[in-house]
Design brief:
Structural class: mainly beta
Largest sheet: 6 strands, antiparallel
Helix content: under 10%
Shape: globular
Radius of gyration: 12 Å
Number of strands: 6
Strand content: over 45%
Strand order of the largest sheet: 1-2-3-4-5-6
Number of helices: 0
Number of domains: 1
Length: about 80
Amino acid sequence: MKSFKIQLTRETFSFKFKQYEGTYFFGELNEDTQIVRYKITKDKEGLELKEFGNTHIKEDLLYIPQVDAYIDLNSIK
C-alpha cells in the first residue's frame, strides 16, 4: 500500500465546494486494484475526521468525489 497526503487548496487545485478549502486528503493506494481508501480531515495530523470513503485512480488522476475534481498525481509528487 502506498500512502499520501494532499492539502486541498483552491490555489493548487480547481474544485467546487469551498467547505473543503484547507482540509487534508489522506489516501492509501492498493496498487493491484488502483482503489484508494481515504479520509478527509480538518487537521494535518489526520485526527479531526470530516469524510471518508473509497475512490479510484485512472491514468494518474485521483478522483475526489466530495470536491468533484480529478487531481493529477504527478503534480503532487
